[in-house]
Design brief:
Blueprint (H helix, E strand, L loop, with lengths): L1 H21 L3 H10 L26
Length: 61
């Protein structure tokens, strides 16, 4: 039983390696697209990253 599990995992590893060799970067791209992860929010005025919901510090003066 343990041998069957090890062989299964090795076959899955080989399939993954072949997939990465044939289509590099496609899995990460499709996951980002499915989850809706885009570019991080940046301030339109100064270009810094916006953390939180209050906005950027450049507007405060």
């Amino acid at each position: 039983m343990i041998k069957a599990v090890i062989v299964f995992l090795l076959v899955m590893l080989a399939i993954g390696m072949v997939g990465n060799a044939l289509f590099p970067g496609r899995i990460g791209h499709s996951v980002k697209k499915r989850l809706g992860l885009g570019n991080p929010a940046t301030c339109k005025r100064c270009g810094r990253y916006v953390i939180g919901s209050k906005g950027c510090d450049c507007k405060k003066g």
